[in-house]
TrEMBL record:
Protein name: 3-deoxy-D-manno-octulosonic acid transferase
Phylogenetic placement of the source organism: Bacteria, Pseudomonadati, Pseudomonadota, Alphaproteobacteria, Rhodobacterales
Family stated for the protein in its record: Belongs to the glycosyltransferase group 1 family.
Organism: Sagittula stellata (strain ATCC 700073 / DSM 11524 / E-37)
Entry EC number(s): 2.4.99.12
Protein role: Involved in lipopolysaccharide (LPS) biosynthesis. Catalyzes the transfer of 3-deoxy-D-manno-octulosonate (Kdo) residue(s) from CMP-Kdo to lipid IV(A), the tetraacyldisaccharide-1,4'-bisphosphate precursor of lipid A.
The protein's annotated pathway: Bacterial outer membrane biogenesis; LPS core biosynthesis
Substrates-to-products reaction catalysed: lipid IVA (E. coli) + CMP-3-deoxy-beta-D-manno-octulosonate = alpha-Kdo-(2->6)-lipid IVA (E. coli) + CMP + H(+)
Stretches assigned to the 3-deoxy-D-manno-octulosonic-acid transferase N-terminal domain: 30-178
C-alpha cells in the first residue's frame, strides 16, 4: 500500500518535453544506475567486465555511472510515473543493476512491470532513501526494495537492516562493497626479476603519480629517513611530463644522488632516488616497492589517486589528506589496516621508516589484498547472476 500511495502522487502529467530516446539496442540489455561518483565508476567497471565476458550483451549506463567504452549512456527519467513507464517500455531491459541506497520507487516499479530482473548492489547499514513525498505518506523505500530480486549488502549490519525492513532473507547476500578494481597494471616477469636483482635487497619506497607541488615534502621526508636508514631508496614516478621536469629540478637542487631511469642509467649502492618520466612503468614499481605514497593527496585540487591500483599489486599505501575523489576507497582500506594517512614531511618520514620494514609492509599489503579480493568476488558473483538470468530467458 505504501508503494501504491506513493505512485498515486506521481501519476500526474509527465514532462512537457520528454527526453528523446535512441532506438533500443538489439539483443540482451542491462540497464545500470548508480548514485555517487565513486560508486558510479565501480559500476561502470563492473559493466565493462561483463561485456568483456559476454560481448553480445548491451549496456545502458545511467545516474552517476560515467560513460564508458561503447556503452550507451542515458539520463534516468524524472520520477513521474508516465515518464518512468515510457522509459522502461522503450528500453525493456532484461536486467537492472541498481547501485546504492538512493531509491526511485516509480522508476523501479516501471522496470519491474516490464519484467526486468533487478539486482541491488552496495546496500549499506544506512536507511534506504526515497524521494520526498507527502508527509502523510508511509515511507515507500521498503516497498521499492521489495521489487528487487537480489539484494547485495555490504556487511552483516546492512543485511540485518534489510531483514528488519521485511526483505526475504533468501534474497539477501552479504557480499562486501562495490569497488572499482581494474585489472592489475602489467609488467613483464623478466623485467621484474632484472630490476629486483638491481635493488640488491635495499629497502625501497615509491612516490606514485607525484605532482610537482608535493615534491618538497617527499624529498624532505626521504632526506630525514635516509639519516636513519642509509640504504633506503626512493623511486619517483611523476604524474605527467610537466611534473617530471619540476621534480627533477627539485631533486637536483636537494643534491640527492639521482638515477634517471628513462635515460638508461642504472642504480648503484650510492643512488638515493630513481626518477622516471611518467606512469607507464608503474606496474613494475608497484611490484618492486612494498610501500607507496600515492600522489595528488598532499596538494589541493586533485582529489588523490585510485588506491586500488596499488593495493591490487600488494603495495602498502601512504596518502595525504586531500583524497576527496576517492574517499570511500581510502576509508575502506584504512579500516582494513591497508593504508595510513600522512600530513607533512615529518609524518611521512616517520611512516616510511616504520612501514618499509618487511613485516609491517606485508601486513598492510595482506589487508589490502583481502579488500580487493572481496570486491572481485562480488563482481564475479554479479556477472554470473546476470549471465544466468540472460541464459534462462534465452537472451544469450
Amino acid at each position: 500500500m505504501s508503494l501504491q500511495a506513493y505512485l498515486a502522487t506521481t501519476r500526474g502529467p509527465g514532462a512537457d518535453k520528454p527526453q528523446p530516446l535512441p532506438p533500443r539496442p538489439p539483443g540482451p540489455l542491462v540497464w545500470a544506475w548508480a548514485s555517487g561518483e565513486e560508486r558510479g565508476r565501480a559500476l561502470a567497471s563492473l559493466c565493462a567486465r561483463l561485456t568483456g565476458q559476454h560481448p553480445d550483451t548491451e549496456i545502458v549506463l545511467s545516474g552517476d555511472a560515467p560513460a564508458s567504452g561503447e556503452a550507451l549512456h542515458l539520463p534516468a527519467p524524472a520520477e513521474r510515473l508516465p515518464d518512468c513507464t515510457a522509459y522502461a517500455r522503450h528500453l525493456k531491459p532484461d536486467v537492472v543493476l541498481w547501485a546504492g541506497s538512493n531509491l526511485r520507487p516509480a522508476l523501479l516499479h516501471s522496470l519491474s512491470e516490464e519484467g526486468a530482473h533487478i539486482i541491488a548492489l552496495d546496500l549499506t547499514d544506512q536507511p534506504p532513501v526515497a524521494p520526498a513525498a507527502a508527509r502523510w505518506l508511509p515511507d515507500p523505500a521498503p516497498a521499492a526494495l521489495a521489487l528487487v530480486d537480489t539484494l547485495y549488502a555490504t556487511d552483516e549490519a546492512a543485511a540485518r537492516r534489510l531483514r528488519r525492513l521485511g526483505m526475504d532473507a533468501t534474497r539477501i547476500h552479504v557480499a562486501g562493497p562495490l569497488m572499482d578494481t581494474d585489472m592489475p597494471l602489467p609488467c613483464a616477469d623478466a623485467q621484474h626479476e632484472e630490476v629486483a636483482a638491481l635493488m640488491s635487497g635495499r629497502p625501497v619506497w615509491l612516490a606514485a603519480r607525484l605532482r610537482g607541488g608535493e615534491t618538497y615534502d617527499i624529498l624532505a621526508a626521504h632526506r630525514q629517513a635516509v639519516r636513519l636508514n642509509h640504504r633506503l631508496l626512493l623511486v619517483i614516478v611523476p604524474a605527467c611530463a610537466q611534473d617530471a621536469e619540476r621534480i627533477l629540478r627539485a631533486a637536483r637542487q636537494a643534491q640527492l644522488r639521482l638515477c634517471l631511469w628513462d635515460e638508461g642509467e642504472t642504480p648503484d649502492e650510492n643512488t638515493q632516488v630513481i626518477i622516471t618520466e611518467g606512469p607507464e612503468t608503474l606496474g613494475l614499481w608497484y611490484r618492486i616497492a612494498p610501500l607507496a605514497y600515492l600522489g595528488g593527496s598532499l596538494v589541493n585540487g586533485v582529489g588523490g589517486e585510485d588506491p586500488y591500483e596499488a593495493a591490487t599489486l600488494g603495495t602498502a599505501i601512504l596518502y595525504g589528506p586531500n583524497v576527496g575523489g576517492h574517499l570511500r576507497s581510502y576509508t575502506r582500506l584504512v579500516e582494513a589496516g591497508a593504508a595510513r594517512i600522512v600530513r607533512d614531511a615529518d609524518s611521512l618520514a616517520a611512516a616510511v621508516l616504520h612501514l618499509v620494514a618487511p613485516d609491517q609492509a606485508a601486513a598492510m599489503a595482506h589487508a589490502g589484498w583481502d579488500v580487493i579480493s572481496s570486491g572481485a568476488e562480488l563482481v564475479d558473483t554479479v556477472i554470473a547472476e546476470v549471465a544466468e538470468v540472460l541464459d534462462a530467458r534465452g537472451a544469450v
